[in-house]
Predict the 3D structure of the following.
Amino acid sequence: MKLEMFTSKELKPAGWLRRQLEIQAKGLSGNLDKVWRDVRDSAWIGGDADGWERVPYWLDGFIPLAYLLEDGDMIARAKKYIDAIISGQQADGWICPCKEEDRAGYDTWAVLLLTKVLTVYYECSGDSRIPEIIYRTMKNYYDLLKSGKIHLFNWGKARWFEGFIALELLSKHYGEAWIAELGAILKEQGTNYADYTENWKRPLNKWTFETHIVNMGMMLKSEAVSQSVLGGEYTDLAEKLHDVLSAYNGTAVGLFTGDECLSGLSPIQGTELCAVVEQMYSYELLYAATGEAKWAERLELLAFNALPATISDDMWAHQYDQQANQISCERFPGKSLFRTNGPESHLFGLEPNYGCCTANFNQGWPKLALSAFMQREGRIVSVVPVPSVLTLPGLRVELATDYPFENRLEYKVSAEAKTELCVRIPGFAKDLTVNGEAKENSGELLFCLEAGEHSITVEFSTEATYVARPNRLFCVKKGSLVYALPIKYEKRMLEYERDGVERKFPYCDYEYVGTSPWRYGLTGGELKPVFHGVDEIPFSSEKPPVGLVAEVCPVNWEFEDGYDTVCAKLPAFDGYAGEKETVELIPYGCAKLRMTEMPIV
């Protein structure tokens, strides 16, 4: 049954999650309009730089970040961009910075993306102008598509379903027949990814829209977001597509490899950061559409591992591609390791390889924060147990927790009338208790609360386990956290200018040069948890909040053929190469250089 998502007016981050958002606001996301030409001088606001996806991408995360933090300066800067975009709308409704004679060749992925962003802005700000702006934009889009003056191609064709975020809003506000007709046109002209699953089973060094990793992350939600407009029976198409992607391209942290297109099961292939945040967003909307716990658990796996792993602690630098086994992030002097990405894709910086992720990565944490609580027929549902405060007329629900680093959830509820609170419990939770009383883990807890003040403490344990990966490798997992062997490194700062783009501290590039041993296998012995406390930087690489003490053993593991900064896909599997050692594995999200998939020897 469909759940309703709350807005930034009702739902606010607290605890470690608020600190994470504050770090983001002080970093690249909160300053991109000041330092990066493609946003600062964009054609969307009358400049001469990019007039396509980069400003909408940035606003998609910057807007909810500003409103979640109630930051007046950021809110004003967001409004400045929205006002400029609105002022550029043509009399017939066309809104993109493109001459009328060039419309047929303009990839209207930008229309789909911008209307999604305007929907986000409306939900955050309540700006009464926005529904009509979206109406005029989409009505013009409908007229142009229906008349054949334009058609979907390239990115618009691959991402047709993104337009349904705005179409659902229009359906609620206007309910006119052309809205569903536009949805049908988008689906008819758009890519049907179910036709391409065979292409996902044997990755090639070939760039295609049908195997592009960001499209893979986005398209999982296609049925879920389009059904309310198009109607029809929900078939859980996302699960079928997810199964194929996972079987042939899955990683230890729930991603699919893609550097830049699907890249198989090797732990040294990369995954583009845009794909991380888009896959998260798909899972958030899939849970909202279905209420199925699997999407929330998959969301946690990405959010608590893949997202922080590929962004620097201060959130001024990010990677384009992350690798599960990543022993050094240095520019390849010759041929790139990645299938269709360049030799700098795994560096941490301003726009390594390509700038889409520079603008797009900042939606990850804010949209996770907006998924903490949802509502189903008046019942409040705690979906992702991150520290948050939900405030509604006559109701306040506060969740204090250091989850996923600790498994203690403290709910304080103040209600003026009877209230139902549903708490989703992860499937891996053991020894579940509520206010000290043992409970069975049925997947959720339902509390029917009378008017008044209530305190509810939910606790559970999680077991550290070795999880089999392809090719006789293993990873270590405890709850939603994957653990890795951290590799020490030295940062090599790179300040320079290229193609008119300046890299200057703090928005410069870095090579992370590995300096500690990495040729290890796991012994399969006991994994002892340790808790250090959650730092001001939640996923700190220097002060990880938790760890697992484990035994490892040196093994014979060569470099990948042709490289001296990349480990081989697999070790030799010929036994020990030294004495056992005791190490502390740390969360994958804290380990910027790491060995995640290793043999058990």
Q: What stands out?
A: The longest strand covers residues 452-461. Residues 99 and 547 are 56 Å apart (CA to CA). Residues 130-147 form the longest helix (18 residues).
